[in-house]
Predict the 3D structure of the following.
Amino acid sequence: MTVSTEVTGKVAAEAAGKYTVGAVMCPYRLVLEHVTSRWGVLVLIELLDRPYRFSELRRAIGTVSEKMLTQTLQTLERDGLVHRDAKPVIPPRVDYSLTDLGREAAEQVRGLALWAEARMGEVEKAREMYDAAKGRG
Amino acid sequence: MTVSTEVTGKVAAEAAGKYTVGAVMCPYRLVLEHVTSRWGVLVLIELLDRPYRFSELRRAIGTVSEKMLTQTLQTLERDGLVHRDAKPVIPPRVDYSLTDLGREAAEQVRGLALWAEARMGEVEKAREMYDAAKGRG
DNA sequence: CAGCATCCCCGCAGATACTG
DNA sequence: CAGTATCTGCGGGGATGCTG
């Protein structure tokens, strides 16, 4: 059916060529990695609620370093998913919000997060069973 | 929504064990990182079509090393998302398939992949505009 | 406040060799 | 075929200090 097959088919096709991990990757894979990245996921979900200022976002996420948040926001802004609004005031004030494109991505990501939250208990049980089975040999 | 990343304590750290990915974090975050991981995403989407044998999956994805595929599959199996069926024959034959839980996750992930594919062009245009704006200073 | 620049560690991930 | 075991690099990402 599936576009998913087509999608991964493209990945495979890319692999057949002169693909190298560190170098240029196809745009599709890149945007996917950006939105599924460690901090990208959390930023998108936060911004789905409302716009945030930089350090407000930092506090909301809680474990992200300033460097990684900056880097993540720049990547998402470059991909056209996040809008950066720097106000020329002192002290500086910068608001981040989702673009229409970013909102689409964020809603997909939120679906994933909601699933993870809902099924977390079952996953934990599965882990315990797996570990117990391994432990007994 | 809340995406608190506060550490839940030593229990989480110890439970993660050798499967720890990066820093210590709550189980919810862990599942999310597993399914959004570089190879986890591709494995889940591939398995959405049908069961795969190990090296069949390796060829289908195309760029994944044997080591990373093994590691990814073990993580997803431990989380109860992937079922491993090792047949006692020579030469060995191992089939991987999605569990019901895994299928739910995979469908969410596919949604993300489909979005990325559909909007890839717009993202590329956004990147060009961003780079052009930066280039002009 | 919102970043940028720099240093540096460690763990992800690739390469290689070996086994049941 | 489907893995394990081991070595190694290099880059992700944290810590720190500085700027507009």
Notes: Confidence is low (pLDDT under 50) at residues 1-23 of chain A.
